[in-house]
Amino acid sequence: MKNKSNQKEKNCTILEKNRINEYICYYKIKNDEDGNAYYIKKIKLADESNEELAKLSNEIEVLSNIKNEYIFKYVKSSIKNDYFNIVMEFYEELNLRELINKYKNENEFIKEKNIYYLIKYICSGIKAIHNNNIIHGNLTPDFIYLAKDKKIKIGNFEVFKKLYNYNEYLLSNNNINNYLAPEIIKGENITNKVDIWSLGCILYELCTLDYCFNSDNIISLNNKIINEKTPKINLKIYDKEIQKLINSMLQKDPNKRPNIDEIYNIIIKYCDNKKNKKCVENEIKIIIEITEEDINKDIYFLDNTDYIDENGNKHFHNSLKELEDIKIELFIDNKKYEFKKFNNFFEAKEYKITLKFYNYLRDCSCMFYNCKNIKYIDLSDFISKNVTDMNHMFYNCEKLVDINLSKFNTENVVSMKNMFYNCMNLTNIDLHTLNTKNVINMSGMFYGCEKLKKINILNFDTKNVTDLSNLFRNCSNLSDIDLSLIDTYSVRNMSGMFSMCKNIEKLDLSKFDTSNVEYMDEMFSYCTKLTRLDLNSFSTINLKSMEEMFSNCRSLIYLDLSNFKTDKVENMKKLFYSCNNIQNLNILNFDMNQVNNYYQMFYNCYNLKTIKINKNNCALLKAIKDEEINPEILTNIE
């Protein structure tokens, strides 16, 4: 068991470390086997280890009993070297604090409908906590994470315990005082209403992008929390009902605050009210009213669209709110619905959607964004000749199995970024009608299309494309890509282009012109079946970064990079990381004068037998020595 544990550690990489104090430390790690990231919370056991273990076991029991999609998932725990280790799932996406700062920096406010949905998801998580007699106790934007499906995950249960055993409230060193309830500051009895107070502060901050109570002085801050009235949001931007909700959650007397079920019901009532006129007027550009009894959920659909009316007049964002009638017909399960005004549809059941457009749309970015329950989209009558932007068009349509693009006119489209991102159930996409002559960005176009086995893009005109990063990333079943006609002269970024294509055994890139490429980070990472890779045609004269370029290419035995010019490269971190079957490597002309990071460049390359390098390349010699591998080093002989 001990060897197995050690081997497990060897297959994990520490990405980040955050020490809270001398007893608690957080790690972000990556499992080198599955490529997934996790959090590890390490807690040093005190002298009274039995008592400490009892407390920690209770925390683990609580974690394992919460089965909720809005709560960070508990993975496992262990005791080692006087530390209790708790492994939790990890999300790469930003947290709520970063989202708030993003809007603040861009001088924009968060849309009202988005605020309601965020609070709805947070409430769902808190309901699960409170229904298990648990206090979160550390609820702040820093520990609420936005997952890939745009829902949230609540983490960092720093101080919670079972309510019946909650005799005192312990503040962790990293708790943010701006969200503390008055009763905590005054040392009074603690209930789960402290989470309601924190939620009220968070709701206020989402509306104003600023703290509800703030001061540089902790004494002054505590005084404000205890004595000052709740500040007001801008009622010209947001509905007065939000202010009422904030006021109710920020009652100084915890007994007067609503419980989480009451708050949740208020939020649900709003989200299901498709006739909320203020939301419609402020947020929705094209609106569809669905009156069928069984269609009672909102759908994100046709948000952010521009169009040209039948008289040739252009209308840009927000213009549609002035119109009562738009010439678009909507068919759901072959039933025609009147086009009036609309709100969202991403939580709807699985419907077959057919749209007929009689107005010319210009911006289709995020058109079906996160419509994750739609299985079929028929766009055979879609007039797309004026469309310039299709980025994120079918983003996260994870149940989509078929798209009819047969009459797509894309001659004016400039961006197809993340167009089919995470369409994980698509087994085939007919792309022969797509005209890409003006496309500049194809980044992440097929990212996460896990069931695609073949992609035919031979008709693609890519002479203007500058970004192919993550183009096929995580197309894990893709086994055949013909790239012989792809023009890559203008491309600047190929990072992650084939990353996680775990079923590809060979790639013919002999026609690639890479003379202008600056970034090849993770370009072939986790191509675990790739056995042959001929890059002799590659020109790397402008290359700046190669981080993890061949990381975890575990089937590569020989790699010749002797033609690579790397005098501009600054980053070679984990370049050959875990290429554990590579035996012969030729990097004779590698120049590392500009490289400032070559951490774990040859990590786990324990089968490397021969390596060709320049005899004067001291940095390379050091990188080899650092990883404690002993290949035969062949140098250029003059």
Overview of the molecule:
The protein is an alpha/beta fold and 638 residues long. Among the domains are: 2-89, Phosphorylase Kinase, domain 1 (2-Layer Sandwich), CATH 3.30.200.20; 96-271, Transferase(Phosphotransferase), domain 1, CATH 1.10.510.10; 293-334 and 342-368 and 376-424, no CATH class. It has helices at 2-10, 49-65, 96-105, 112-131, 182-185, 193-208, 218-227, 240-249, 260-271, 277-283, 618-626, and strands at 12-19, 24-31, 37-44, 74-80, 83-89, 144-146, 152-154, 307-308, 314-315, 328-332, 335-337, 352-357, 360-361, 376-378, 402-404, 454-455, 480-481, 506-507, 532-533, 558-560, 584-586, 610-613, 632-635. The strands form seven sheets. The protein has a five-stranded antiparallel β-sheet with strand order 1-2-3-5-4. Strands 11-10-12-14-15 form a five-stranded mixed β-sheet, with no helix packed on it. The longest helix has 20 residues, at 112-131. It is globular and about 75 Å long. The relative contact order is 0.05. Residues 1-8, 159-175, 274-310, 314-334 and 336-351 have low confidence and may be disordered.
Short overview:
With 638 residues, this protein is an alpha/beta fold.
Please mark out the parts with pLDDT under 50 across 5 or more consecutive residues, or reply none.
Answer: 1-8, 159-175, 274-310, 314-334, 336-351
| Continuous helix count | 11
* Mean pLDDT value: 78
Structural category = alpha/beta
Give the distance, in angstroms, between the N- and C-terminal Cα atoms: 52 Å
Strand arrangement across the biggest beta sheet: 1-2-3-5-4
Approximate strand percentage: 5-15%
Stated plainly, the CATH topology of the domain at 96-271 is called Transferase(Phosphotransferase), domain 1
- Give the total of beta strands: 23
CATH superfamily membership of the domain at 96-271: Transferase(Phosphotransferase) domain 1
